[in-house]
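Continuing the batch. This is chain 6 of the set; chains 1 through 5 are on the previous pages. Same settings as before, nothing changed between runs. Recording input and output for traceability.
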Amino acid sequence: MPGSAQPSTGRVFVVAGARAAGKSSVARALADALVKSVCIDGSVLEGMVAAGKISLTAEPSVGALEQLFTRWAGALTLADVWCANGFDAVIADDIIGDYLEDFLDLADTGPVHLVMLHPSVDALYERQPVTDAFSPEYASVENLWNEVEFNTQRVGLWIDNSVMTPASVVVRVLRNLQEATVAPVA
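Output for chain 6:
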């Protein structure tokens, strides 16, 4: 519209962690706490594959990795479109291990506020029935937890949300935005 001010650019938040870590619940709570926001859930994007879905395995195929990276590129594209119109975008997805670096390479257009949820093994076991199944590429809850603990780059804001509500995680995130900020690699 003539004479209307351009909206300021929104921020990108990424809520990552293992399956059953609470990513979707925290991402929705975070998006709800922001003034103008969208929530982009990786599991919803994954579910959009109507035919030809290739699941990740211990030794993922090229096709499985292509689908994973396409999902992430789609999430980041949605985020960019909404951010360009002044919305904050909150992405929730399973982003752990070496894949975190791959995701951050895709998100090279600007800084992201990365929140890595890392509940205890016991908390993951308690939450397991709520999810469909654990990632077959990790075979056990312990392996999944170990992948986050020992093989995931320590960037962004890491939170043990074993006994925290999504609302209390959101408060911690909003109070620690600087620590959560990950700048793109030059």
